[in-house]
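Per reviewer request, we include the raw input and output of the structure prediction for the construct analysed in the revised manuscript.
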Amino acid sequence: MALLQTTITSDGLYIYHKQSPGKNITIPFLLTPGEVKKVKVWDDECEAWVYGNVINDWFSEILEIDCELVYMPDETNRLVDAGYAKDNETTSFSDDYPFLIIGQSSLDELNAKLSVPLKMDRFRPNIVFTPGEPHAEDGWKHFTINEIEFFGVKTCGRCMITTIDQQTTVPGKEPLKTLATYRSFDNKIKFGMNLLHKGSGCVKVGDKIILHTQ
């Protein structure tokens, strides 16, 4: 899946294989209700709509495994962990939370310790900011971007996916080997801050982040 690149077009989500761009497909933004299936993300089970055979056959061929693409309708609500929620927030098919933020300086500090520097795509954040001290995001409890409120609720525990080169899919030991030497907390390796939000709007490159003390 690391070799599948996405681009938003007027017709939908355009997906192509990085190494074979001729292998591509467009996923429509809106899906006509059809087959409903129970899906599971970690311990959460929820209902989803299943895309048609053409799309599912394409993914099955590309990934070399029988699989289906599913869509979360508005009627389905997957709640975030109640221990960290503020107002019964929901997320989609993400790992745990709807947003993840990482400072560029956090990656810069890591890369200074590595023999081969890594790109930010290893960590898949929604928001990357600069300037700032390494891991400043660990202490961010409340900030706004374009009047959208964001709340830092939990540092992100990292898994083996971060060790897979996103251009080649070749796995390695980094960055977890090095991160374990200085970013281990509560028996987990932490890098980045999970976020909840309040409000809606647009976040784009160059927007200012306004930190709040409370």
